[in-house]
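From the shared-data thread, chain only:
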Amino acid sequence: MEVRYSQLFPKTLREAPKEAVAANHRLLVRGGFIDQLMAGSWTLLPLGWRVISKINQIIREEMNAIGGQEMLMPLLHPKEIWNQTGRWESADEVMYKLKDTRERDFVLSFTHEEIVMDLVKKHVRSYKDLPLNVYHFSTKFRNELRPQGGILRGREFLMKDAYSLHTSEEDLMVWYERYKQAYLKIFEKIGLDVFVTEASGGVFTDKHTHEFQVEAEFGEDTIYIKPGIREGFNKEVFEGNEKDFEVKKAIEVGNIFPLGPTYSEKMGANFIDRDGSKKPIWFGSYGIGPTRVLGTIVEVGHDDRGIIWPESVAPFDVYLVDLKNGEEVHNKLVGAGVEVLWDDREVSAGEKLADADLIGIPVRLVVSERTGDKIEWKERSEEKTELLTLDEIIKRL
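Structure, as tokens:
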């Protein structure tokens, strides 16, 4: 597909925002991926949206592979639904609540357990309707007191949440493990090394849950990892001897909750079992924050010149630096199915090369007088450059 950098909105910025401490804040804003509307609220600009779309597609494929069905639930919820589980009060400090002109109470979605349970109550009758796996990509609103770390902790952010519904605890735990394995695949494809840590359930459940954590200097979680394996504990539930564990700072990119029958008991969501008896539905919920994943990739993948995107989620395959009639090269690449960001601007070579590094697309190609009938190939994560023919480049890509 063709995108000319001269027409792409917006361009890179020379300076990072003054208040930016985290690498993702500095580099995503400077690179033209995101823009801040207010504290904790971000626009995903065209480049940023391309990355998010690729992250979402990887997640979607793995959710579909284990039998998840994608849908989309509302963001504005009536108070009555949240009253049924008591979370209108118990989760009060994170919720954005509002009234309409008739003084009716609503809340903006901070999660969707109650909404799924309400839905299932209307449509699931018997054990034959279960297990059921549904998911959506939607916006969450959380009243963060201190939104910080760029796009890592927002008041409004994207979430993929999946929900599984079952006839028994055994079945729930079989699926819980399937989700865990699907999540490990997702993060591997995205290019993130994750640790799986036990954690507490917060406002979701009193059971232990599992988080997917990425080691990062800027991480706000402290995790304790057993040497030699990629599993451990979040600080909040850790009870071991510190000397036997590696202590790391980490960013949580996903979590899974075995919620049990509590929600269905409170909301009256039952099914008729084989023996004709009425039983509550067992419930699990599973979340990944694509916008948080975006920020985390940059936290762990950058240098002093800019971002280094993994190939699987990079906004384009190639950044084409055009210093002399690069049109033909561009057309052939696009014809071969390569995604190219073509820097066709009339600015200095230095500026184009600096922007290529900042934006961080995996491969930079330079067409100039100096390269003659060949093209200079450089990978963003490598220092060395090579001169190759167009055919060799297309083969490599």
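The radius of gyration is 24 Å.
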